[in-house]
Amino acid sequence: MLNPLYHLAANAIVFFRKGFAPIFGADSFFAWAFSVVLLVIAVRVLIFPLFVKQVKSQRTMQMMQPRIKEIREKYGHDKPRMQQEIMALQKEHGNPLLGCLPIVLQIPLFISLFHVFTHLAPMNEGPNGSLVWRPRVGLSAEQVEQIASAKVFGISLASEFGSDSDFVHFLGVNSTHVKILAVVLIVLMGLTTFMTQRQIMARTGPVDPQQAIVQKVLLYGSPLMLAVFGFRFPIAVLLYWLTTNLWSMGQQFFVIKRMPPVRPLPA
């Protein structure tokens, strides 16, 4: 079902690599790495209008908090009526679920990129069981080999912290260097995820107790979860996630700084 997305992600990376090839060389690690970075930038620019709507939606939720608190106090004994009043308020001032759209739209791209870079290993289909390259998810056998074989300091974009020994030996990857870079990227990924979540909490302002618990779980749980799973992510995916976080931090700072202060809705 997701094959079209896998092909789209793969073709986009190949397309961007053509632009970097004259600068770094067609088979350069940096040509492919910057293609991943440019893919992030292209996607984030495309969904920028949705991000602005997300910020406005969150600010609206912040403005509604005093009114929601009043409704909870007034109808706390009548749960159905309380929910009805809150839903009516949200309907009047905008659906807060719209704020989730930018995150939701990026999930398929992340899955596609993860799929592309975890399917670059050679296959045991050559003579006498030798390893050979095969076409994968929109990439020719030659392109698969170019991406996986492009290295800097013995590090391939397709390698990960726990890369299979056959893969390491076949490509001539330096497993120590891969582990060092993977750990650095995982730490930076976790740190920037934490900082991004802190930004979101700061701009959301005071929330009800249940939302506060959710925010704290996301603040500390998201970086921890990414750190755990990051050891199974290829270097390219770690680079993608770090770039996304850095873009998010800069984008949030730029947009929020230019918006007027949040004021509660009139009673």
UniProtKB/TrEMBL annotation:
The opening ranks of the lineage are:
Bacteria, Bacillati, Actinomycetota, Actinomycetes, Frankiales
Recorded source organism is: Candidatus Frankia alpina
Gene name of the encoded protein: yidC
Q: How does it assemble?
A: Interacts with the Sec translocase complex via SecD. Specifically interacts with transmembrane segments of nascent integral membrane proteins during membrane integration.
Compartment(s): Cell membrane; Membrane
Report the family membership.
Belongs to the OXA1/ALB3/YidC family. Type 1 subfamily.
Q: How does it sit in the membrane?
A: Multi-pass membrane protein
| Domain Membrane insertase YidC/Oxa/ALB C-terminal as annotated: residue spans | 32-256
**GO molecular function terms here?**
membrane insertase activity
**Pfam families (UniProt xref):** 60KD_IMP (PF02096)
Matching entries from PANTHER family are given as:
CYTOCHROME C OXIDASE ASSEMBLY PROTEIN COX18, MITOCHONDRIAL, OXA1
Q: What is its main location?
A: membrane
Per its UniProt record, what InterPro entries does this chain match? YidC/ALB3/OXA1/COX18 (IPR001708), YidC/Oxa/ALB_C (IPR028055), YidC_ALB_C (IPR047196)
- The chain's coiled-coil residues are none
Q: Would you tell me the protein name for this molecule?
A: Membrane protein insertase YidC
Looking at the UniProt record for this protein, which Gene Ontology cellular component terms does it annotate, in alphabetical order?
A: plasma membrane
Keyword Cell membrane tagged: yes
What's an example GO BP annotation here? Answer: protein transport
TM ranges are: 29-52, 97-117, 177-196, 217-242
